[in-house]
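Objective 1b: paired records.
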Amino acid sequence: MAINLYLAKHYAPNLYPTNAKDEALTHQWSVWAISEIEPLQMQIVIQKFFIPTEKQDQAVVDSATKSLSRPLSVLDQSLEGREHLIDDHFQIADLNVASVMLLLRAVKVDLTEFKNVSQWLDRCHSRPALKRAQAL
């Protein structure tokens, strides 16, 4: 996150907020993603991708998936009536949070309950730069 924030601030000014309030919100959302989503997501990823099938613990997956409801609800409410996390265009906060959440789709976490999150992720994950990076 620190590297993304630095690079955006110094080399991609169109992605970086132009005022202190939005900069603080950008840092807040970025830290939120790595503290609220990523640890639960990684419990699922570890079970599904790094532990042999016969040793996987479905209870860990179920618990982490259930626990994701709280932060996903927060994000869903924050995105109500909005296209992006901050301001009216895609910025580094969107990039950081959506990047953390790439793995949720890889492990097939059901986001249908979180309509705003799902639509926002579709917008973020369909950006041409991500498509190019995934092709590498």
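Objective 1b, second protein:
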Amino acid sequence: MTMNRLELTQVPIVKKILVSRWLPWSLVALTLPVFVLAILAGLFGTPAGSRNFGIVFVWIVWWALVMLLLVPFAGRLWCAMCPIPAPGEWLQRRALVQPRAGGRLYTLGWKWPKRFNNIWLQNASFLAVALFCVVILTTPLVSALVLAAFALVALAMSLLFERRAFCRYLCPVGGFIGLYSQLAPVEVRVKDHALCATHKNKTCYVGSAAGYGCPWLVFPAALDKNTYCGMCTECFKTCPLDNLALYARPFGADLLTSRGRRLDEAYKAFIMLTCALAYSIVLLGPWSVLKETAYAVGSVEWWVYAASFFAANLAIVPGLFFACAWLARRIARAATSTRELFVAYAYALVPLGLAAWVAFSLSFVLVNSSYAWQVLSDPFGWGWNLFGTADWKWTPYLAGWIPLLQIPILLVGLAAAIALALRAARELRMPQRAALPIVAFCAAFTLAMLWLYV
């Protein structure tokens, strides 16, 4: 334990669980049947979204689990239990639990192209899914086809590329979970870097008889933030020096360092921030015509909506922020380029974006989560009543409390964003007043969200 971290692996039961080969398999064994049922319900069940397991348990229950619990408090834990890459990974390994003798993976083993060794493709895939969100979130057949497509692409990439290329470079869900996992109060890290340097075989990366090399293509000794660690725990199994640990730490610890800041990650922050506002306007705002337009795929109005959506995500919001970074540079009379300031200050948007998504999710989930009781007993909408809950009425939960919950969440996100903006100014050796344009941007966004919700 250090001054600001607590080593959880000092607890024997925690250590025993993390080194067990049954840990990842047992988690996926719980989620895979739910995933398969969601696809089957979408393909063969009722077209009424509120009565279909595929819609309710994926886009309400799962979304609540990820955005309200796992991402804020456990980082990328969902990636350790995600069923989407499991079939491809099991085929690649030709094993479910214990590694096969020899350890050779059943794949062509292609190297991922260096020019795509980033999250730009994840940014693009998230935007593609987000553009059709109204259709995906309300139409069971479309939702099922999208989920099946994810699984098939992941399977194909497992047979072609080394390890979890789909998860690392393409998965739209993994992109935003990775971004916001920087805020989580847990981390997997090496205990002693000097001890790592003495170990020549690097089994944590290449694998051993005890387990596989890091599926995420991450060298644990170089790991300094949560963004690309899928918490699969393979490194705990393959390190012969017992030099990996799970730590509890302060929230947002990864954002307190300037190392590893990148433009692709900065743009992920803008995309997530913009989509949180767009979803709030389209799905929860008083303008029903916008939701109808987003649903009418292929119409003239939809093409205008699509153009506006991409413009807002890729040009308007980042452009406004770039102008704020330029103004900050002028205020400070700094030699630092505007592009460098743009990237550095963008990380202040991470807590602001997560707060916006949590606020949106509360409004969406609490109002609609009671549908889960109905579809639990009748997943296909065929008139079943497996557990006696099929006739339970829709009831919004805590409806009167939702704004009272959203206000402090958004204000906490704003406060964290301001603190990070001021910290970035200090790291860049600029006066605190140079962060004022960034603070104004964050405050304006927060006011817009509050205006929508309150």
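The chain has a mean pLDDT of 94. The longest helix spans residues 300-332.
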